[in-house]
Amino acid sequence: MSDRITVEELSELMKKAAGITVSPQELADRPDTGFEELGIDSLGLLGIVGELENRHGLPMPPDAERCKTPRKFLDLVNSTLLAGA
Amino acid sequence: MSAPRQRRAAVTGIGVVAPNGTSTETFWKATQEGVSVLDRVTREGCEHLPLKVAGEVRSFDPAAAVEERLLVQTDRFTHFAMAAADAALEDARLGRSDTEGAPYEAGVVTAAGSGGGEFGQRELQKLWGQGRRYVGPWQSIAWFYAASTGQISIRRGFKGPCSVVAADEAGGVDALAHAARAVRRGTDVIVAGATEAPLAPYSMVCQLGYPELSAVTDPGRAYRPFTEGACGFVPAEGGAMLVVEEAGAARERGVPVRATVAGHAATFTGASRWELSRQGLAEAIRGALAEAGCAPEEVDVVFADALGVPEADRAEAQAIADALGAHGRRVPVTAPKTGTGRAYCAAPVLDTAAAVLAMEHGLIPPTPNVADICHDLDLVTGGARAARVRTALVLSRGLMGSNSALVLRHGGVDE
């Protein structure tokens, strides 16, 4: 598994953990659209974080589940994965 | 100054997701025709269990009824509840625009006995199989009794009185009464009822210890209350939601009052103490009639609890006679649930829906699979019976000892 989370993986996780369908292209084009606007609430994001932690065997920082947008979320988890690698 | 007009709780919408129909129309057609849909259990993971016959909801597509965002965070019993609530609100012609202007005037009351067993099992298997980190966050809400009330209220933006009645199977009746009280106290609209999904492996194992559960494997003989062949009950899934609103407000909206919730009472006589339920049920009937200002002779039909355990059937027949006197031997009694199974808390709500439809159609639905009654009751069997039904009495008992009675009046019995 790649040690960088792509928009593809985030899109897949959003569907699996929160039942929200947003294409990778959409996430790439509009990374500053808020999770709230996309329909993902705090429990939804918590589920996404938990799934990532299990996949990568690394704890994510508490701030991960407080990120407001996909861009901020990807920046934070990818810097964490980079540091942990 | 004249006294303010007394507020009355009217049923203006019905939404059904039942083993014999996933719309009110199909449910009523199957119910009045006396169709039995009891069948061998087919749910995955249940094949090896000793419970062989149930009433499964087979023609329900959750993805067609509920947004995917909510599907992932809810159990099947909540899928049923959301779909039934939508149908009931549509039936009552209450769209989002009708309630969003006054969100505190709309609420939700549900009852549940089984909770979200399928969802809970999946997450608990992750807990013990993979570890606590693999349990998803939705487990924190999905499997609890309160899930359906919460999800319906959030989804529809209802901020008025919302509650969950956890009171055994008879809690389904109590939830409707609770909704009626909220409406009489001043809330405009309450969506009320119960749905259950107890046919997943974990939930089924939880039921295996009930001595009242039928072990008969022939679907046509597994649930035959009030007969010599009574051998327990068959469980079911599904349920119904009703829209309960103030009768005057319904008329002002131009929506027909289909029935009024006129009286209710509940008693408790202890788990599996069926002989004592005679007294408890009779007392509940008397209380419900008193609240409704209804004489025993006015009752046109009784929807029986019909547990199918000889001792319990006898107690129910005696309770009807005790509370209704000589009329108890003449009044038509029916138990359409013998064709669908008992969906725990949802069973009396489905009976209430059927009672409203019976009043509207002037037709008392029959008791499928049942013939040769061994109690002094006029049980409607074979086909539906045409009758002028102005007042219906719905009875429910729970395995844990609750007994409830609900009196419904026809929509036209008004001023």
Automatic annotation (TrEMBL), chain A:
InterPro entries given in the database record: ACP-like_sf (IPR036736), PP-bd_ACP (IPR009081), Ppantetheine_attach_site (IPR006162)
Statement: the UniProt record of this protein carries the keyword Phosphoprotein: yes
Residue ranges constituting the Carrier domain according to the UniProt record: 4-85
SUPFAM superfamilies: ACP-like
Keywords per UniProt: Phosphopantetheine, Phosphoprotein
Name recorded for this polypeptide: Acyl carrier protein
Automatic annotation (TrEMBL), chain B:
Entry-linked InterPro entries: Beta-ketoacyl_synthase (IPR000794), Ketoacyl_synth_C (IPR014031), Ketoacyl_synth_N (IPR014030), PKS_Beta-ketoAc_synthase_dom (IPR020841), Thiolase-like (IPR016039)
Keyword Ribosomal protein: no
GO molecular function ontology, one term from the record: 3-oxoacyl-[acyl-carrier-protein] synthase activity
Protein name: Polyketide beta-ketoacyl synthase 2
Organism of origin: Streptomyces spiralis
One protein family per Pfam: ketoacyl-synt
SMART domains per record: PKS_KS
Family: Belongs to the thiolase-like superfamily. Beta-ketoacyl-ACP synthases family.
